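Our collaborator T.R. sent over the components below with a one-line note: 'Predict the complex.' Nothing else. No constraints on interfaces, no templates requested, no preferences about which chain binds where. So this is a plain run: every listed entity goes in together, and whatever single assembly comes back becomes the starting point for the next discussion.
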Amino acid sequence: MNNKEKQSFLSKPAVQSTLAALLCIVIGLLVGYVALLIINPKGATEAIITILKNYFTYPSPKAAMKYLGNTLVKAAPLLMCALSIQFCYQAGLFNIGAAGQYVAGAGAALYCALALNLPWPICLIAAFVAGGVFGIIVGLLKSYLNVNEVISGIMLNWIGLYSVNMLLSGVKETASPYTVQLASTNPGALLPSLGMEKLFSNNKYVTIAIPLAVIIAIVLKVILSKTVFGYEIRATGIAKDAARYSGMKEKKNVIITLFIGGALAGLGAAFLFLSGYEQWSVTQSSVPSMGFNGIAATFLGGLDPIGTIFASYFIQHITSGGSYLDKNVYPSQISDFISAIIIYLCGFVLFFKLHLNSYLRARNEREKQKPIAKANKEEGGKN
Amino acid sequence: MAGNSEYAIEMLNITKRFPGIIANDNVTVQLKKGEIHALLGENGAGKSTLMSVLFGLYQAEEGIIKKDGVEVKINNPNDANDLGIGMVHQHFKLVQCFTVLDNIILGDETTKYGFLQKEEARKKVLELSDKYGLKVDPDAKIEDITVGMQQRTEILKMLYRDNEILIFDEPTAVLTPAEIDELMEIMRNLSKEGKSILFISHKLAEIMAVADRCSVLRRGKYIGTVNIADTNQDELSRMMVGRDVQLVATKEDKEPGEVILHVENMTVPSKLHHNNAVKNVSFDVRAGEIVCIAGIDGNGQTELVYGLSGLENCTSGKITLSGRDITHASIRERSTHGMSHIPEDRHKHGLVMDYSLAYNLVLQRYFEPEFSTKAGFLKKAEINKYAEKLIEQYDIRSGQGAPTIARSMSGGNQQKAIIAREIDKNPDLLIAVQPTRGLDVGAIEYIHKQLIKQRDEGHAVLLVSLELEEVMSVSDRILVMYEGEIVGEFDPKKTTPEELGLYMAGAKRQEVGA
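Returned assembly:
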């Protein structure tokens, strides 16, 4: 009996995903550690601990809370990008264009805030729509011209980047390539914190963005698993032909899915830039990595919105932790390297599940065989 | 070579397990030299696994294989080839854009200084083709020749490699009746020349016609071997299924009612080529009759059904369902207004394979108020209740009932689920496309009964089938399709499979529907 309970526990998909993700993380960290050893064996142990400790390196709990806040501020947009990719993935679409949709959202939010002096709710909506429009373009191309969403998504990433650079060059500081500070130009566009800053030692960047991102993740989970829309989206993703056969409008679904995906990424950008934590550099010539890191977070999260919450936090945690390394000895990209290894291992999640399941089945079978072998002769393999 | 043994190949006490299933449980098959030995079993009985063991694709956990009385180890297909074992697969393994000759020598080419020596090969192929009556044109490309000739190419491939033991895996599935007769003749010739043949099939008539002995498998277990001369179809089917089966569907005469489906000059373009797949086709299906579209695969039946169900747009023509013009109606509209469709490809169209059985059972109805709220939430409890009802009513068997993932169900039960879903919609017109393909005798019997029940209840049924036996026994009226046109209309009571075969192959046609 005890054995049986253990089995059903292990065979739960959520448990399996978690186990697989933890395994990926452990292996990723080990490989990262090896890389640190190669670069400089002396401080490697200390370095990997620094990455893992992130804000805990600060001895005072007050400071630690403050820097936990910083990690969360960046985890929220990452989560949004991850949700964007995840939502589209459920419909069988690989939304690598999330990076560009994120850029579009950033451009729209900052332009509304700095050039048009609009309050934050309007800026959020603008980012939502801008990201969504970028998603819709991909969706229309996919549905009506059968253009692969990966190709059109990547190309739109660049179109988005340079358009936003142009758009925002009117609101940049005279002496630097960065956009002007929100706090001094239009404080009304800063996201409200609702007193949460107090919890994080007066970290003013901690805003409603963080709980909002978590709530959105939960809402998405409900939509996907409990609604007619989610039923259609997933059916379209798993079996496009069956969806069409059953009379679903699969083209319309693809477009709506990409609109929502794009809007989520765009909103993610607004969550970061409207917190005032970062400014946009109008001379940047590579697409911000947030959208791409979202891919890692969503796969590490086992393609589940709730799992993605934790995965996004973890990836941001080690990314932030990497910035505490001694830059003279180790490149701060070591965290990116570890995340990259983890993404690479995410393919392993499926592999792990497959093997765990076949192991469980085989064990189950052996258990079953014992009594059957004794008692039964004819009816062994019934269905 | 120790040639004393009576047997060419013996597979003794073979046991092969897969996770969760014993595919072969202590199976013994002994192939005598020069005999045609049939291997009979339903789908999933373990025939393919057994052949894969013989071919070295799988290793058996228990049991031994003997060739000419000497134990051999077959670790991979090359070992099998070296032992002279060859196989004609159900789906031919031919390079479409190569010639017949190129395909035959592929993998066993004679070369000189790295250059192909085709002349020798051609001579050998022509000799073999003469000797066994295997008519082929060595210079024709595979894509241009008939399925029958492709099969002969496959057989020549085995003979070219001097294989002594020939395995035919369901070889008649793709052939017309005339071609089947021809193949039977070829097999007899081969065995006369001393080749030993293993003939895998679930068609009893063919086994009775050509085999010397027959071994039967059921659910992975070896049931027995019988001499064909001492047995009959009923006994074989009982051995295969484990109970008495009604092999031929029976139904009472019934006068058809009003016209339910009216198709006028329908034309549907092809996805494969620039011509139309369905050309100017007109027909009616009435209430209380089963109209069957017969024909060889690829003559426009698939596209005809796509046109009717809305999966493909018609370029011209008119479709009326129960008096309503549905020529330009959406798939959903057709589905909710009296059309049910059991699709040809149940994995591609019929089911969302990674959805649960319950979700699949509402695939056409999830949006109805019965199963979803106005706010757009699914009523999971209602869906499950409905699924339980259908599972009970249609005897759909699965591991865990309603929450079972469709992918993990057996083919027969997947098909039962689709049939339950489509029939329970209470349609005016039921379109069933090859509903029994790949299913075992028991499931076929069940499906035929359901189709006839629909007819008896006064629904119109349009059946598309490639199996002539099914066509003859189930339908009330037969339309033969050839190259996108309906070339003949027949009463199953007044025609023969041979006559239908002539029309299916395009040798004859009558003017119908004019």
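Summary for T.R.: The interface with chain A takes residues 19-22, 25, 219-221, 309, 311, 330-336, 341, 343, 345, 348-355, 359, 363-364, 366-367, 372, 376-378, 380, 397-399, 410, 413 of chain B (CB under 8 Å).
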